[in-house]
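Case study 2.
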Amino acid sequence: MPLLDESDINSEIENLPEWNYIEKTITKDYSFDTYLSGIDFVNKLALIAEENNHHPDLSIGWCKVSVTFTSHDQGGVTDDCIKMAKLSEALFIKK
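Prediction:
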């Protein structure tokens, strides 16, 4: 899958609230009411990532989960990263 250029990435994430393009990644910090709500989100996102064979870098904190997508093989952001960001948003909205 080819890398997206910065203008394409910014155009895609413009419609994804609070997603940012930083150093060849797209990233967002999600906030939750409880620690376990964040863990539940991570577990569900892990299943979606496994189904799509595109896995995020995750950082779990107290009532906060940071999600970062990049293509390690390609060395930057691809359409798969954008797709997974959209799926992350859908999962978060559904919670």
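The chain has three helices and four strands.
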